[in-house]
């Protein structure tokens, strides 16, 4: 196995197609096909099931993919360690939707301007999924609301606090004032998928009112706010997201307290790129 072949294999697995993988990597399709076939021959097992033009991982391919993520991440870490004074290479960052929209544009722009040779990749997902991807070497670091639901207390992960988000429960404008969960007249929560810390906070607060809580899963804050405005449900929104809106919707807002956003990474992972990102985040936090 060589790193180039593993990178091609991983890209084909992600795209489900040699054609799309070759385009993404800037390679000829025949070259990508040959490298995957050679890898299968070297390992003595099929890595993909060919279903027309679609390629799906075999059980052996799934096993290799986990190792490929770890090997390629370690190789990138080693390359960066050879240039301790200059962040270069690639940094794969994960973030919640709210953090990506409200907190990252400034720090990432500053980071790119200062270190143009550093390639930044951003992926969004709920907090628990991001933490799992860091542990699986699929991300180098991630910004998550702490603690992610269901994450083991002793999970091998390091964290640095970078933001404190003020959370608000959005209610329809026609809803009576709600000082406590017992005052709620809606019992449907519009929220992101399982694994979202803000969803868990909203569910826990609403359940204190004694009524069961149902969840309507949505994929964006505009969709959540639209459903709340329609009078159907409640929704948890960070104050920083609300401040992005030119004209906030005329809803009723209930403070839910604060939640820390942590920068997560694996123990021992300490590259110049990660240090530069952390510095950019903390500097932006302290800026007036």
Automatic annotation (TrEMBL):
PROSITE patterns: HTH_LYSR
Superkingdom: Bacteria
Any one Pfam family match given in the protein's UniProt record, by short name: HTH_1
Record bears the keyword Amino-acid biosynthesis: no
Listed InterPro entries: LysR_HTH_N (IPR000847), LysR_subst-bd (IPR005119), WH-like_DNA-bd_sf (IPR036388), WH_DNA-bd_sf (IPR036390)
A molecular function (GO) term: transcription cis-regulatory region binding
The HTH lysR-type domain, residue ranges: 1-58
Keywords per UniProt: DNA-binding, Transcription, Transcription regulation
Keyword Methyltransferase: no
Stated family: Belongs to the LysR transcriptional regulatory family.
Protein name per the record: Transcriptional regulator, LysR family
Source organism of the structure: Alicycliphilus denitrificans (strain DSM 14773 / CIP 107495 / K601)
């Amino acid at each position: 196995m060589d790193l180039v072949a593993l990178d091609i294999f991983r890209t084909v697995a992600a795209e489900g197609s040699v054609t799309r993988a070759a385009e993404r990597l800037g390679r000829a399709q025949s070259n990508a096909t040959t490298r995957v076939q050679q890898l299968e021959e070297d390992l003595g097992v099929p890595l993909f099931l060919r279903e027309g033009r679609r390629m799906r991982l075999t059980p052996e391919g799934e096993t290799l993919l986990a190792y490929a993520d770890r090997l390629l991440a370690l190789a990138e870490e080693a390359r960066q360690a050879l240039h301790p004074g200059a962040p270069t290479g690639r940094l794969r960052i994960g973030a919640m939707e709210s953090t990506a929209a409200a907190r990252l544009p400034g720090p990432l722009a500053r980071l790119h301007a200062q270190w143009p040779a550093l390639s930044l990749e951003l992926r969004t997902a709920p907090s628990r999924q991001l933490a799992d991807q860091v542990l699986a070497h699929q991300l180098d670091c991630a910004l998550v609301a702490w603690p992610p639901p269901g994450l083991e207390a002793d999970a091998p992960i390091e964290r640095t606090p970078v933001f404190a988000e003020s959370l608000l429960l959005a209610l329809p404008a026609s809803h009576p004032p709600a000082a406590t969960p017992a005052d709620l007249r809606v019992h449907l929560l519009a929220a992101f998928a399982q694994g979202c810390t803000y969803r868990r906070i909203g569910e826990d607060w609403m359940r204190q009112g004694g009524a069961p809580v149902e969840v309507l899963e949505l994929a964006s804050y505009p969709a959540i706010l639209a459903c709340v405005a329609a009078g159907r449900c409640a929704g948890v929104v960070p104050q920083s997201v609300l401040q992005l809106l030119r004209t906030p919707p005329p809803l009723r807002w209930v403070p839910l307290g604060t939640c820390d956003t942590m920068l997560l990474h694996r123990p021992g992972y300490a590259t110049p790129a990660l240090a530069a990102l952390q510095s950019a985040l903390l500097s932006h936090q302290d800026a007036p």
